[in-house]
Amino acid sequence: MTRAYFTAATCAISLYIPLRVTPSSKSFSNKNSVLKNCLFTNTNTNTSQITIWNKQIGINSMSFKTRLTSSEIFLLKLTPRVKSILIGLILSDGWIQKRGHWNPRIGFKQSIKNFPYLWYIYKDLAYLCSGLPMGAKTVTRGKIFYSVFLQTRQLASLNEIFNLFYLTINAKIIKTVKQELFFYMDYIVLANWIMGDGSKRNKGLVLCTDNFSLQEVVLLVNILILKFDINPTIQKEKKFFRIYINEKSLMKIKPFILPYFVEHFLYKIN
Fold this sequence. Notes:
alpha+beta
């Protein structure tokens, strides 16, 4: 089997996915004939397709290789869609692990009842992982809780996400919100932020921003106002500051985030 890695600098295609290439009898001298006369097939499926930047990549052979060559690691780039998903996860319950000069890795955990959502995003992130999601069991106050989590490989391409959210102060890594987030915020980010850390409130919803300071929450609210032309407010619950999106604002963004929602979490925006 031959692997081919297809990128196009002049069109909206950006991907890493192992492909099987079956050439026709015609010449490959014309670059347009490559697209017309080759069959691009995902190595783990029978479908014939290329992956556009905002579509799911799907599970592929990289997900089940415990060790990669240096060239394979170099080719593990983030598509715009995957980058937005990762940012949405970090804004909610995701985390980044980075030790010393090693490359970072990203993890995300959900209750076992929310497995449909974790599997939904895993299909996009699988090519960054070395295996399937794993289960975990914790005991809190005498009760057993089951969860499932995924974890990426340690990759240089994830430094962009790490630098967007983390500061190193006195050798300590601190999670924060930076102004640069404005340029990354889109409806895919927002959809995953809501699915991961949003909860229904009356006819609107609340984003649980408990891990951020008041100044950081104010910055997040300003980004939402400028990017989506909505009117979120800040509510204080105990010692935490959370973002409330009212019904009118929710109805305004709903048509744009709906395509990126998993059915399991539709109740949050309905």
